[in-house]
């Protein structure tokens, strides 16, 4: 082979390699923000794959329908308790505001004759000499209210952005889970095609990964249940309303 031909072949090979590296880098740059939901979708698809197989058998082997129904079942099981929890939190917040606003209006409103300074002195007589005046206390309360209002506005803005990002990641995860359920076997087969592992090693690796994932999820759920139960018991012992 002539030197010019060899040189041209090397240049083409180098160009193709550089092009592959550049395309791979661009692909990773675009998909990196969605790496976590994609990874979580893959793990959950592997964790609930037995459920998918069972549902698919119920529908006569229709994989797409089985994947869609499996996602629907998981959404109901996951979002149901979450919605109930958020409803309880919202109800408690509304109850607290209904109780706090009349008290503040009665004792700290413009028409109120309630003297905060005297009330604090009666409650904490040892701190009487350090207690600020009524006007200073009201001024501090007003400053605290303004600070709290600004914090709530900033918190609401952050929550809006966080909620939007959460919904986007949730959509990406569910979308990926659908295809991981339906075509997971083909995807794994294609991935392992490019690895030097034997079939036995591939099976062992998948088994260990599924076992670790199940153990992690189950451990997290058990710890969460125990913590919630202990917190509920502590609130009930303390006499906090609604703890039970």
Features of this protein?
244 residues, mainly alpha, 2 domains, 84% helix, elongated
- The figure for the number of domains is 2
Structure annotation, total helices: 7
Structural class: mainly alpha
- The portion of residues forming beta strands comes to under 5%
Radius of gyration: 30 Å
Low-confidence runs (pLDDT<50, min 5 residues)? none
Share of helix, binned? over 70%
The beta-strand count equals: 0
Quaternary status of these chains? single chain
Roughly how many Å apart are the termini? 85 Å
Main β-sheet description: none
Shape from CA axes? Answer: elongated
Order of helices and strands: HHHHHHH
Average residue-wise pLDDT: 76
Structure description:
By secondary structure, the chain is mainly alpha-helical. It folds into two domains: 31-194, no CATH class; 198-244. It has seven helices and no strands. The longest helix has 60 residues, at 134-193. The radius of gyration is 30 Å and the shape is elongated. 7% of the residues are buried.
Q: Short summary of the structure?
A:
By secondary structure, the chain is mainly α.
How would the blueprint of this fold be written?
Layout: H1 3-31, H2 35-47, H3 49-58, H4 63-108, H5 116-123, H6 134-193, H7 199-238
Helix pairs in contact: 2-6, 3-4, 4-6
